[in-house]
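Lab meeting, action items carried over

1. Structure of the two-component assembly. Owner: GW. Status: complete.
Input record:
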Amino acid sequence: MSVASSTASTEDTTGAPDAGGTAAGMASTPPPPSAPGAGGVPRRKIPWTTRMRRDRSLLIMVAPAVLLLAVFAYVPMAGNVVAWQDYSPYVGIRNSPFIGWANFERVFTNPLFLDAVANTLVITAFQLVFFFPVPIVLALLLNSVLTPGLRTTIQSIVYLPHFFSWVIVVTIFQQIFGGAGVLASRMRDAGYTGFDLMTNPDTFLLLITAQSVWKDAGWGIIIFLAALATVDPQLYEASVVDGAGRWRRMWHVTLPAMRPVIILLLILRLGDSLTVGFEQLILQRGAVGVDVAEVLDTFVYYQGVVNGDWAFAAAAGLVKGLVSLALVLGANKLAHLVGEAGVYQRA
Amino acid sequence: MRIESETVAEKPVRKLPHRRSDRYRALLRGKNRPVWEEDPNPLGLVVKGVALLLIVLTVLFPLYTVVLTSLSTQADVVRSGGLVIVPGGLSLSAYTQILSGGIVTRATIVSIGITVVGTVLSTTVSVLAAYGLSRPGSFAHRPLLFLFLITMFFGAGMIPTYLLVSNLGLIDSYWSLILPGAVSAFNVLILRAFFMGVDRSITDAARIDGAGDWRILGQIVLPMSKAVVAVVALFYGVGYWNAFFNAMLYINDNAKWPLQLVLRSYVLQGVTLPGSGVGQVDIDDGAVTGLPVKMAVMVLAIIPILVVYPMVQRHFTKGVIFGAIKG
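Predicted assembly:
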């Protein structure tokens, strides 16, 4: 039904004030000479008030979500001003004095913050190597299962842990690999000294990566399987005719088909470099210690909510948010440069 | 013909060393292998089978022992030194203990309430927003869409959100567990992508017949998108059910804790459950304290997922891929 094209619609909204009160009648008036789309059929320019009235039910539908976002996403965004304040909850945002960049200076000179940054990056890098490829390999493996029933069953099973909470996952690991866990107690029964992976800082990276793999690697294959399903079987057939064996087909047909998705997910992961399993880590920070388990998000939580150093924590959180934003946009730019679609298309 | 067969008989064909019978080959190839593909290597098949079996067991075995432990007695736990792997005597006493009132029962009810209310609210609001943004060229849809997109790339941060919730007086209110994360732009985009895929001629026909947008959404678009709405509802539902950190932030009164937070304190961190003798202090610095009870709480937290999951699971690919690629 909409007559206005997308270009016209943007002009409509910008040129809005002129249309003012002249409401419904305008719709039927002939287009002004400067109307866009002059070639071919002249496009009528509909005043914004008319379009607003025409789409009012759509706007009413969007309203609750916009309201919720406005209150719970955009108001807090503005609330980041506390990062420039000497904020005190007793005085409130409105009356707390502004102190310039002092909080940010404290953030960047704080050794604990720098440790948290280091831990975050180490965990990201480690998981990039030891988590990221797992779903790809799993997807290739599962894709080679040809019996439809068997394949669906395995798929349903490996997706399942994704839907368990981190509390459940960590508890399961604790009961198996913890000091009182079943493995350690069996070993003690057999005369060895027990062990406790849950409190060992040296193996913590391995532990959390194993947890992530158990929980999310299965779910991770879903997008790769979908990419594999779109491969034209004729490509395989043709490559067989050309003499390609199993592995060559994987290298020259299957993997190229997965490449856009792999790059897309890599970008998303890189953009998310500063976010590593917050719920997972906050559950284990106490057991294993701050030295290895403190990441940016837990740092913000403990400095702000636990210690009550609100403005300082807000500054740290804001730094993290902005750097993350830059990372996503940068990674996406990079994707465009190497000729991939990226997370979002350039309109 | 005769001459040819004679020549063959004179020069016997060298028998291939691994000539396979047709039946063996058919078995090896299975029913679904495309004709162009070579016969699989039997060793490869075995390796693959073992790998898949191990993967499946890695997922299922922990669940098995958790469920079994919850159905065992404390004596079984002591005997096996932790999680029970070989079934001893089965008993439901752990479940009767946690479900006969007390903090776990209350937490379960709280979690169910939050999940139901939250899922209904989030799904409704998201479906409406997605439809509202799905018509090309509608008034202000670009800036509105942008408003959603921004929240995917830049989060406000924990501290300002906490300050807001606390200023709104929502600390210790269940709404603090629902409202701040009620709308996920990602889910809205999944839904929107689907709604945009609905054949335009159908909705236009309805419009010509005099149907408004509410009616088109309710009677045409929604019935055609049941699968993706179910997936999004599942995402929201699982999110609400599994959330514990927001409760850690906003709920100080532990009588109001949802199940996951109870799980964290009493099961993961081993704080003794108050009342009803649930957390008998045991030997080994409380290491095996009431393990059946703890595992019963775990099972309680897993059950709803196991119940809902199979119903929605077959729609996953559609929903997730749509969102990921078009978002």
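2. GW to write a short summary for the group page. Key points so far: Residues 275-288, 323-327 of chain B have pLDDT under 50 and may be disordered. Chain B touches chain A through 106 residues (CB under 8 Å).
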